[in-house]
Structures are given as C-alpha cells and as structure tokens.
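Exam revision sheet. Question 4 asks you to relate a sequence to its structure. Input first:
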Amino acid sequence: MNIDDLKNTWNDDVSEETPEISIEHTNKINLPLEKIRKNMRMEFWSTVGILLFGFAVVWIPVPEAPFKFKFYLTVLLFSMVIIISFFFSKFFKLYKEISSPTMKTYDSLKDLSHQFDLNKQYYLSFMLSFVPFLVCELIIVIEFLPHRTPLSDLQVATTVISMLAVGLFGLFLLGKYWYRMFYGKYVKQIDNLLTELKK
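Answer key, structure tokens:
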C-alpha cells in the first residue's frame, strides 16, 4: 500500500460520522433527562433545608444541654457539610451536562449512560459516608444524655455496634431505593433507548 492509499484510508475514517439521533428519539431522551434534573434540584434544596434545620435544632437554647454536646454536634454537622459539598460537586457537574444536552449522536448518548453508571456509585458512596457520622452522634448522645442508671461498658459497646450494623444496612438500602425511585427508572429509559438505537 503506498502513501496515497494510506492518506485516502485515513481521510475516509475521519469523515465517517456517528449517525445522528432522530428528532423523535431526541424527544424521548429529553423527558427522562428533565425528570432527573428536577429530582436533582429537589434533592439539593431538601439537603440544604435539612442541614439548616440540624444547625437550628442543635443551637436552640436548652438550659440542660451542655456546651460540649452542642459543640460536638456542630462540628459533626460542619464535617457533614464538607462531605456533602464534595459529592454534590460531582452531581452538579452531571447536572450541568444534562441541562444543556447535545444528544445528537449515539456516542454522546452512550457517554451519558456511562456517566449515570459512575454517578450511581457516587450516590451509594454518598449514602454510606454518613455511617461514621451516625456512630459519632450515637456516642455523643450516649455520653451526654442522662440515664437513670449508668450504662455498663457492655451495654455501650452493644448499643454502638448494633446501631452501626443497622445504620450501615439501612443507609445502603435507603440509598439503593432512593436512587431507583428518583433516578434509576429514568436512567433505565435512556438505556432502553440506547439499546433501541443500537439495533
């Protein structure tokens, strides 16, 4: 093969474009994307509201609550804000990409599907990242709330370990359920459309 044949082959490969998605399929894509955007906005603002409520509850003037109790809970809440900010920065990046979709080709839709898979892992990690906070809050409550009789070491250990197990399992299930209800079914619609276009 001479140099001219190589040039022609290269130019042919470059000029081949990925087939564009029809207007009908573009409309089918936009509906689940709009639902995902709406749910992302709802989740963001509800998380902000919950955090503000948490700060307000911690600092409501309750005379019997010691300063250390309020301070430790405030530090935990600020730590949660840092973790939440990290994960929401990832979600916001995806939100921006699907807010101005240029879903004109099969490859762009395939790339979006891959990003949804990646963000599903982020989402489950986001939910599970709250387990240490749950344990810390539990320890603070056990240490600072008055009990009729002092808890033995075994009771404290049993309470913390059992709550950790229940919290870990509960947060994992909640994360899977929440993702499926608010995002998963719409991602599945896009995956089905991707399969349909592949045929």
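Marking note for examiners. DSSP finds six helices and no strands in the chain.
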